């Protein structure tokens, strides 16, 4: 792994990379129905792309209300701190925007990852797209 970096992405200019990653992770690997993956929030979200060199390998989005979502890293790059870099960038942008509370719905297996970044579970387990999730909250000082 070399030269991992994260930048804010443009939904219009970077849509091919954003779609490729999300379709691979959510639709192909996790069997999320396409109609649940794509929503009207994409147009108003701040999107992020993680790259190794110039190849996009991960994505996330931040909604205007502080909700973080669509965090996805391609399989070959998982476990290499790409998700950490993405989440740090999203949290930094949320705080820059003055969003003191960041929320997300985490797949249950990923809760330790989010807890490491200051999130705590604030709901009972529920199913979203057939996958067990919990709501999580992070509050900035």
From TrEMBL:
The keyword Lipid metabolism does not apply. It comes from the Bacteria. The keyword Transferase applies. Keywords: Acyltransferase, Transferase. Gene3D superfamilies: 3.40.630.30. It holds the Pfam family Acetyltransf_10. One of its GO terms (molecular function) is acyltransferase activity, transferring groups other than amino-acyl groups. Residues 4-141 form the N-acetyltransferase domain. SUPFAM superfamilies: Acyl-CoA N-acyltransferases (Nat) (SSF55729). This is Predicted N-acyltransferase, GNAT family. It comes from Pseudomonas indica.
């Amino acid at each position: 792994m070399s030269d991992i970096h994260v930048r804010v992405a443009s939904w219009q200019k970077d849509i091919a990379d954003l779609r490729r990653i999300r379709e691979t992770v959510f639709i192909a690997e996790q069997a999320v129905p396409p109609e649940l993956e794509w929503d009207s929030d994409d147009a108003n979200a701040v999107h992020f792309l993680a790259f190794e060199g110039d190849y996009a390998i991960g994505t996330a989005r931040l909604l205007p209300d502080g909700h973080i979502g669509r965090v996805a890293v391609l399989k070959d790059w998982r476990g290499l701190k790409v998700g950490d870099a993405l989440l740090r960038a999203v949290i930094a942008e949320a705080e820059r925007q003055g969003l003191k509370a960041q929320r997300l719905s985490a797949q249950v297996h990923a809760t330790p990852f989010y807890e490491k970044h200051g999130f705590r579970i604030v709901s009972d387990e529920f199913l979203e797209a057939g996958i067990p999730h919990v709501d999580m909250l992070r509050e900035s000082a």
